Amino acid sequence: MKYRMICMLTAGVVVMICMGCGGKPSESVVSSVKEAAKEKVTQKVTEKAVEKAIESNLSTKDQKVDVDLDSGGDAMTMTVTGEDGKTRMVMGPNAKIPPNFPKDVPQYPGMTLSQLIVAEENETFTLEASTKDPLEKVTAYFKEEAAKNGWTEEMAMNQTGETPMAALNYSKESRILNLILTTGEGETKITLNTAKQ
């Protein structure tokens, strides 16, 4: 009851402000609302046109592509369905580690995920992420956690100099785990791929 009363009072205050306390909405409020609505419609129409253009350019008789851009323009989901199954790519803030991501593949704590590609038929997962932690710390983490989770190191390569990086390759049963760690713009970039061999 108290919540409902507060909502009604708030709505009344907003209506009075919008009407300029003169009985009808002010022209500036009406103009602002119209402009915002026009901008939203234009944005949605543009978004749908871009989605359809990408889909028609990437689709073939053997594969169907479905694209979904978010209305803010900073995220995209694309699904490609073909003879080999379905591959899904998520870029931007909507990228999240899926529930079926292998539990024995290390994930760096606090990393910011920017892209995820999943081909579930062959259990392939590729992710791109970043962290503010230095390359050495990130490399040490993955080496330690991979060993703890039963992965066998097949190759480890470090490059120093202007563009430091590390490449780590592991195997476990019939699967592989590959990591490329690079630095740039004050961050360590993580590219992780795991799949069946």
Q: What's the architecture of the largest domain, going by CATH?
A: 3-Layer(aba) Sandwich
Amino-to-carboxy terminus distance: 62 Å
User: Helix- and strand-based class?
Assistant: alpha+beta
Our Rg estimate from Cα atoms comes to 25 Å
Would you kindly provide a written description of the structure presented here, covering whatever features stand out?
The chain has 197 residues and is of the alpha+beta class. The chain has 2 domains: 17-92, no CATH class; 95-197, Protein Transport Mog1p, Chain A (3-Layer(aba) Sandwich). The protein is built from 3 helices and 9 strands, in the order ααβββββαββββ. The chain has helices at 2-18, 27-58, 135-148, and strands at 63-69, 76-82, 85-91, 112-119, 124-131, 152-159, 165-172, 175-184, 187-196. A 9-stranded antiparallel β-sheet has the order 1-2-3-4-5-9-8-7-6.
Summarize the structure.
Helices cover 32% and strands 37% of the residues.
Task: Please outline the helices and strands.
Elements (H helix, E strand, L loop, with lengths): L1 H17 L8 H32 L4 E7 L6 E7 L2 E7 L20 E8 L4 E8 L3 H14 L3 E8 L5 E8 L2 E10 L2 E10 L1
Antiparallel strand pairs: 1-2, 2-3, 3-4, 4-5, 5-9, 6-7, 7-8, 8-9
Summary keywords:
197 residues; alpha+beta; Protein Transport Mog1p, Chain A; 2 domains; nine-stranded antiparallel beta sheet; 3 helices; 9 strands; 37% strand; disordered N terminus
